[in-house]
Amino acid sequence: MEIPAKGFTHGGKFHADDVLSTALLRIIRPDIQVERGFQVPEDFEGIVYDIGDGPFDHHAYPREERPNGVPYAALGKLWRELGPGLVGENQARLIDENFIQPLDLNDNEGVQDSLADAIGSFNPRWDSHQSSDECFWRAVDFAQIVLENRIQDALAVSRADALVQQAYRESKNGIVVLPGYMPWKNGLYRTDAIFVVYPSQRGGWSAQCCMDRKTKKNKVSFPQSWAGQPAAVIQEKSGIPGMKFCHAARFLITADTREEAIQACKLTLRLNGRKVED
After folding, report:
1. In this predicted model, what pLDDT tens digit does every residue of 97-130 receive, in sequence order?
2. CA 238 and chain centroid, separation
3. Which residues touch 64 (CB under 8 Å, ≥6 apart)?
4. Phi, psi of 23, deg, nearest 5
């Protein structure tokens, strides 16, 4: 879809829906000129959204819903059209599920959303002399940064997927060892991986549990006796000298070396009755 040079959305009080829709259009076409008002001019030529009962409005009845029952707002309709071209079909779907849909629910049904609240706080106060349009563009600047970060995160995940999947193909005992710190959950989502080992951004190495995609729980958790204990206690309990940390929720450990992090995963598997190849 080619974005025209002009856009039109509603005036007055603004919401996350029209603000983020404007930010999305501006990301794709930075020179777009958007007007705000309470009625679309009859001779207007451009993209109209969140007003006017066109393809990017959502106020007409019956409203359009996703297969899961979540109704579309203007942002969801625009993202459905434009998102795949920005991040690909799979990542566009994930962003819709995790980011766009809560905002569409907020606009359509008033479901609380912290980002929608933050954007709404840019509106002028009842006794303020600020211009609504001026505040709107401040909100768009903020929202654009948030949305650009989401898009860049999605692209980073796509860049990492091939490396993660290659590491999975080379894995043993359900322990995937990554060559660097990178997003890995998407690449291992439908696999039988149990642990992921990777260089920590804080130095040393980390190992993290993979979650079961149905139960949303760790497939195997690190031992309770390590959880939240000082390094000296973890080292004594595990017999691994380089162990430094085990999260109280038992999903993450850190160690000095790659080999020690792998050793911690193997020991955990054995303690859970799993067969481990050396």
Report:
1. 999 999 999 999 999 999 999 999 999 999 999 9
2. 35
3. 58, 71, 72, 77
4. -60, -40
